[in-house]
Amino acid sequence: MKKTLVLALVPVAVIGALNGPAQAGPSRGSATLSVNAAGDAARSTALRVGDSLVFSGCGYAPGVGVTFVVVSPSATSFFGSPADANGCISSEQVESYWAHDAGSYTAKAYQSSKKRADASVSFSVAN
């Protein structure tokens, strides 16, 4: 069976533009990150290959870009989204991320530091 590697890359310049001017980020430990199947918030624990995944959370600096890094069994993907006026993020309106492989995934959100994630979540995707 032929496997297709899907890798969503956002140019570094775009990520930098999302982050805007340097601003103080949230205190460590206050940001959250969760994942669920698009349109089905109740299905965060039964994710399946082919699902469109939505990454969301709160506790970020309002109006400042957040970079998502998703590591799947076959690829590492990067994309970004600005935090809203309440300091919450959701990838639903800015990026479609499809679960292409069964296995273990890790997603991290970076805003206040490029070296250490503000929040992270590990999850599994089944066939």
Q: What does this entry look like structurally?
A:
The protein has 127 residues and is mainly beta. The protein has one domain: Sandwich (Immunoglobulin-like), CATH 2.60.40. 6% of the residues lie in helices and 34% in strands. It is built from one helix and eight strands. The protein has one helix spanning 12-19, and strands spanning 34-37, 52-57, 65-71, 76-82, 89-90, 97-98, 103-110, 119-125. The strands form two sheets. Strands 1, 2, 5 and 6 form a four-stranded antiparallel β-sheet that branches. A four-stranded antiparallel β-sheet has the order 4-3-7-8. The longest helix has 8 residues, at 12-19. The protein is globular and about 35 Å long. Mean pLDDT is 79; it is low at 1-28.
Short description:
This protein is mainly beta and 127 residues long. The protein contains one helix and eight strands.
Question: What keywords describe this structure?
Answer:
4-stranded antiparallel sheet; mainly beta; single chain; 127 residues; Immunoglobulin-like; 1 helix; 8 strands
